[in-house]
Specification:
The protein is mainly alpha-helical and about 325 residues long. The protein has 13 helices and 5 strands. The two termini are about 25 Å apart.
């Protein structure tokens, strides 16, 4: 390997990604491909912690891979793979479970939120979610993990477990650092701009999915919740809705917030919402088209998955063997 740092990240195939996942994660990853040795996964085992329709989950995993590539991730430059294809993730989770305390998992904000939202299905996997995530990262000795603010607590557990294991046995894991991109972008819900935009939102008007067509996108922006003073000014405290639309417009056009204020100083919300909708629709169109083309070429996607699996397995196997040896398991010949 060269001396580039290793970067690991993943998205769950738990729904069609939103423009929030795109600008907050996948779009940035594209720029990281040359700077770091990048490994990006489709975290299907994580998705099982919430009830899924099996056939839909399977289809969405393939679709997420197609989306990664359509957004510009290049399987020749980085490792793209499906988490469940590399069995070491589940195995390292077991080992790490033996040094994890139930208290530190039951305190996690996401565990508490998800347990409340899925009260009928509070399962061990939901609680163990951060340990599986730690395994994802530690198997590849990743230095850097780009994550949104909602995942920082999970990254903290990954760091704690790496340090704990290294102290109990001997230095084994790289202690990963969160990587917060310089231009931080958090896209909020269109129906409640105080909440993060989420692909699992029950209100379909709250998010723009990477599958939405032009008409749907324009309609959703028209309905976006805003205040009533009809001035396009960036002010997150008092004008969360408009500020969110300005952020989105800025991310899709490259214009600064200031120049957006100038451009729309004599315009009202109706005009602005239409412009935002058009900018997002024209930004997504080539990606959606490319993704749909790729989905017609299943053989290609299957080959990419197989290559990614092989490359990821080679690294994961090495790490897991080391771990098994350190904890005192007898290695088979
Ligand atoms: N939990 C992450 C999310 O929902 C997805 C994820 C799974 C992940 N494994 C990871 C992110 C490892 C970073 C590193 O956003």
């Amino acid at each position: 390997m060269d001396d580039k740092k290793i970067m690991f990240s993943a998205v769950q195939p738990s729904g069609i990604p939103t423009i929030g996942n795109y600008v907050g994660a996948i779009k940035n990853w594209v720029d990281f491909q040359d700077e770091f040795n990048c490994i990006f996964s489709i975290a299907d085992l994580h998705t099982l912690t919430v009830k899924q329709e099996p056939s839909e989950l399977r289809a969405r995993s393939l679709e997420l891979l197609a989306l990664y590539i359509a957004c510009g991730l290049d399987p020749e430059k980085c490792i793209l793979f499906v988490q469940s294809h590399v069995h070491e993730h589940a195995e390292l989770t077991w080992i790490l479970n033996t040094i994890t305390y139930p208290g530190e998992l039951s305190r996690m904000t996401q565990f508490k939120d998800k347990s409340a939202r899925h009260a009928e299905n509070v399962n061990m996997g939901l609680m163990d979610y951060p340990v599986l995530m730690a395994s994802d990262i530690l198997l590849y000795n990743a230095h850097l993990v780009p994550v949104g603010a909602d995942q920082k607590q999970h990254l903290e557990i990954a760091r704690d477990l790496a340090i704990r294991f290294n102290n109990r046995y001997s230095p084994t894991f790289v202690v990963p650092e969160p990587y917060i991109p310089k231009v931080g972008a958090k896209v909020m819900s269109l129906s409640d701009p105080t909440k993060k935009m989420s692909k699992s939102d029950d209100n379909l008007n709250g998010f723009i999915s990477m599958n939405d067509d032009t008409d749907t996108i324009i309609r959703k922006f028209k309905r976006a919740v805003t205040d009533s003073d009809n001035k396009i000014v960036y002010d997150v405290e008092n004008k969360a809705g408009i500020s969110n639309l300005m952020t989105i417009y800025s991310l899709f056009t490259g214009l600064s917030l200031e120049s957006i204020e100038n451009e729309f100083s004599d315009k009202g919300y109706g005009d602005f919402k239409l412009k935002v909708g058009e900018a997002v629709a024209s930004g997504l169109k080539p990606i959606t088209d490319k993704k749909n083309d790729l989905l017609k070429n299943k053989d290609y996607l299957i080959k990419v998955m197989a290559d990614g699996r092989e490359k990821a397995s080679r690294i994961a196997m090495r790490t897991l063997k080391k771990v098994y040896r350190k904890v005192g398991l007898v290695l088979p010949e």
